[in-house]
């Protein structure tokens, strides 16, 4: 655990330094954009959103005034992590589930460093582990400890169930980061609702072995979720093309869905260094909220 914490700390520092350098004093939070609190009123200017007009103050006859808001100092960051058996693909120590846990751990340290509240929900086809949101370094380490200590009760995947459970648990508007390989279907309606209620970012985990099987002829493949063995012809051009097409179609549909529903989307390949990609994600988020 000491080795894991040390590695996560190093990555967290890299992210914070890069984001702080990019923000140049304009922003103070990697997780900017979740909560706003009332700050006061000012006179209406041409181009202001009419929905922000404070009609009670304006009715006093001294002009038209709009409400102003500032970012809440304390935000809640909630991680929703898929730990089903389909995540156990890749090099030992760098499987999708390993990368998912590392990203969750790194961003937990970042959120705790910024005095945010942090919570965790892991899922398979059921709720696996829930850690109530809390603050402080001790709480952050408790989340990381649960990430690496917990053994899933189920091997199957049901993203819809995980999202629905999150909707029940997370009552206050939060930054929600959903990490999964999204090898599932039927979760779109719940994902849309999650995006409406919270500031949502999706991290899509991928391993090349899912689409680039070695040419070994007819071989047995063990499905960890169904716990069954099926025989596939890895030499078949049709089979290999079908694998690649299935992933690219699913990825394209998920990206399109995220754009339509104002969800931040990031694909992370297990073979790549994920820290630069996370930095890029947060730069985009900060740029978006600055323009707003």
Description:
The protein has helices at residues 2-23, 55-58, 96-113, 137-149, 159-169, 188-197, 237-260, 274-291, and strands spanning 36-43, 65-71, 76-82, 117-123, 127-134, 175-180, 199-206, 218-223, 228-233, 264-269. With 292 residues, the chain is of the alpha/beta class. The strands form three sheets. A six-stranded mixed beta sheet has the order 5-4-3-6-7-10, with helices on both faces. Strands 1-2 form a two-stranded antiparallel ribbon. Helix 3 links the parallel strand 3 and strand 4. The longest helix is centred in the last third of the chain and has 24 residues, at 237-260. The model is unreliable at 24-28 (pLDDT under 50).
Q: Mean pLDDT, as a whole number?
A: 83
**How do the strands line up in the largest sheet?**
5-4-3-6-7-10
Class from helix and strand fractions: alpha/beta
Coarse morphology: globular
Q: Can you summarize the main beta sheet? A: 6 strands, mixed
Uncertain segments: 24-28
Number of helices in the DSSP assignment: 8
The ordered H/E elements are HEHEEHEEHHEHEEEHEH
Distance between the termini: 41 Å
Q: Output the radius of gyration.
A: 22 Å
Helical residue percent? 40-55%
Strand content: 15-25%
Q: Would you count the extended β strands for me?
A: 10
């Amino acid at each position: 655990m000491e080795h894991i914490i040390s590695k996560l700390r190093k990555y967290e520092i890299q992210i914070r330094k890069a984001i702080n350098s990019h923000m140049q004093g304009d922003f103070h939070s990697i997780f900017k954009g979740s909560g706003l609190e009332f700050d006061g009123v000012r006179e209406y200017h041409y181009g202001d959103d009419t929905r922000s007009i404070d009609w009670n103050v304006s009715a006093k006859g001294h002009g038209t005034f709009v409400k102003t808001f500032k970012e809440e100092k304390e935000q809640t960051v909630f991680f929703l992590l898929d730990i089903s058996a389909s995540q156990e693909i890749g090099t030992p120590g760098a499987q999708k589930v390993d990368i998912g846990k590392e990203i969750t751990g790194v961003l937990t340290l970042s959120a705790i460093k910024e005095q945010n509240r942090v919570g965790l929900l892991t899922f398979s086809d059921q709720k696996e582990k829930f850690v109530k949101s809390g603050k402080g370094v001790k709480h952050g380490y408790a989340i990381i400890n649960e990430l690496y200590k917990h053994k899933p009760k189920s091997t199957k995947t049901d993203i819809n169930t995980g999202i629905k459970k999150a909707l029940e648990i997370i009552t206050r508007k939060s930054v929600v980061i959903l990490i999964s390989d999204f090898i599932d279907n039927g979760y779109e309606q719940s994902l849309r609702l999650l995006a409406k209620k919270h500031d949502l970012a999706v991290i899509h985990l991928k391993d090349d072995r899912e689409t680039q099987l070695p040419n070994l002829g007819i071989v047995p493949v063990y499905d960890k979720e169904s716990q069954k063995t099926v025989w596939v012809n890895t030499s078949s051009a049709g089979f290999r093309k079908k694998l690649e097409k299935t992933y690219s179609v699913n990825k394209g549909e998920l990206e399109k869905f995220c754009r339509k529903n104002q969800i931040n989307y990031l694909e992370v390949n297990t073979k790549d260094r994920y820290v630069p990609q996370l930095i890029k994600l947060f730069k985009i988020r900060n740029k978006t909220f600055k323009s707003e």
